[in-house]
Design a protein that fits this description.
This protein is an alpha+beta fold. It contains 4 helices and 5 strands, in the order βααβββαβα.
Length: about 160
């Protein structure tokens, strides 16, 4: 059955925390500074507060067996005058996670496209996201969907 993309509901929270945990565990394999699934509930709660404070959106891909994935984003504005006023407001994707059993079936792309449609309908002209440099598969998917490097965040650990 093809997933239905809809707004997240309170009863989805356990599945969303589980998916956040899977994302955390995956990212620990890429970046040593990432917290594992034990931080998922706390991080998910923080994301929920940011979405509420910034006017964000959380969408899920629902299937008959439960939640196959989620995406969440907020609406933000670039500060200062370095970006033209009409281009400052944008959507920022915070997290996207697809259940392992649903990977490779287009669920992530479906969520991404739904977020793009909704953000555009809300009047923003751009949607952004961060992706770990080592997450080659996600980077490829985003590039295939038309995303390009906008800025590069660099870090030096010591």
């Amino acid at each position: 059955m093809k997933p239905i993309v809809r707004a997240a509901r309170p009863e989805d929270r356990p599945a969303l925390v589980r998916l956040m945990g899977a994302l955390h565990d995956f990212e620990t394999e890429i970046e040593a500074n990432r917290a594992d699934a034990s931080a998922a509930a706390e991080h998910f709660g923080w994301v929920e507060t940011q979405i509420a404070a910034q006017g964000g959106v959380m969408l899920v891909a629902a299937v008959d067996t439960g939640i196959a994935g989620f995406i969440c984003y907020t609406f933000e504005e670039d500060p200062g005058a370095f970006v033209r006023p009409e281009r400052r407001r944008h959507a920022m994707i915070w997290d996207i996670s697809v259940d392992e059993a649903a990977r490779g079936k287009g669920v992530g792309r479906m969520l991404l496209e739904a977020a793009e449609r909704e953000a555009k309908a809300a009047g923003v002209g751009e949607i952004r996201l961060y992706v770990l440099e080592g997450n080659v598969r996600a980077r490829r998917i985003y590039e295939e969907a038309g995303y390009r490097n906008y800025e590069r965040l660099m870090a030096k650990r010591f």
